[in-house]
Structures are given as structure tokens and as C-alpha cells.
Task: structure prediction
Amino acid sequence: NRTSKCSPGQLSQAETLQQMLPPGAHVVKGFNTISAYELENQTFSAGQQVPIAGNCPVMKNAVGVLLDRLGYHASDMGALDQARVIENIPLALFPDWKIPLLISVIIWFFLYFRLFYGKHLCDDNKFGWFPKGIKEGKMFLKYINKTCDSHALILLAACYLPGTFAAYIQLVRGTKYSEFPGWLDNWLKMRKQLGIFMLLSASIHACFYVLLFFPHYSRVNIPTPSITSEDWDWANLMSVNGPAYALDLQGN
Result:
């Protein structure tokens, strides 16, 4: 495989090889997206699409038959000049993560701004600016915590919902061997990425809860009971150490 991406005006390795061969020899670009480890250990998933490109339909058909025997499916990209696109595929960084990451980020910011809007821009059905809670750090602690909570639940639903749609489509069609619609197929393929983002949000939510509700100890001065009467002696104060959130130590 290439070590650097093929620029638009640059010939691919397959095109360069085709120019070096005598007439009658045809080059078919393929197997760039399959690693040697995958072929040796048979770790691929059934039905994986492998892009191929070439100028000779007969040779491309022969490569497609070979891929079918190996358990793959050939995806014809067209003429040999499309080898430039195929050779750049292994050099792409996490190509399957871009759309799930974008979806996850959009959902997270939507939930955060919705919470911010409900707390500081609209209160009791009145529009305006309500800065209460900003100086106390709620924007960083409470709002992020609540956003991650809702974000994790929505992504969890997004992981299971396409499987439900696929099951109903199979029931309606009466077979499980028909292809799903393109939007559903892409949704099914990104469930792993959405699940990892869900786990990240749930972990952040759990860590915030541990930090927010972990017992904090402080010293509180309270008056001592008077021996001579039923009143409290405010002249003599005693100090009590304990959790700051304990009910018996809270005061106005």
C-alpha cells in the first residue's frame, strides 16, 4: 500500500503498473482494504465490501469471483483511474467514525443548549436573562452532568432502534435475505461507534455523580443546651464535624 495519499493529478500505483505492462495485460485494483493478517486468520466479517477498479470487465469479473470464494463481495468502482480513490482508503484515519462522531456532538450540544435555554433564557414562561446558577458553577457541573445523562440514553436508544426496524422489515418481507434500505444499512453499521460514545457519556455522568455527592466534611458551630432552662445558650458554642449535606447539620 501507499505511504502517502494519491493527489488528484497523480497516477495511482495500478495505473503506473498498467503503463509498464505489454498490450493485452490488464491490471485490476483490489485487495487494498484487506490486510494480510485478516486473510491469514480469517477475521473478516461475512459480506464485507471490497472495492475494485479496472478497464477490462472480464478481468474484473474474475477478481469478483475470487473475492466471492474468499467470503467477500466485490464493489465495482469503475475504470482503473478510480484506483487513486481505492489506494487512499487505507490511509484514511477512522473513516467510519466521522458521521457517528458528528451525530453524537450535535445531539450533545443540542441537549446542553436546551438545558441552558430553559434555565437562563426562559423561566416560568417568561423570556429574559436569568443568571442564577452561573456563578455557582452549575454550567460546568450540573448542566454537563445532566446533558451526559440524556445524551447516553438517546445514544443507547439509537443503538437498539435500527435493529427493531430491521426486524419489522424482515417480517413484512417474509425473508431475512433481502437488502435493507440504504439509510437503515448505514445506521446499522454505525451502532458500534454510537455505543462507544454512549459509554463515554455514561462514564462522565457517573464520575460527576461521584464527585458531586461524595460526602464533604465541615465544621459547624451550634449553641449548647442550657442547663438551667429549656432555652439554647448562644453564648457557648460547640463545634461538630460531619458531612456538610447531613440533615442534622444544615442550617439557614
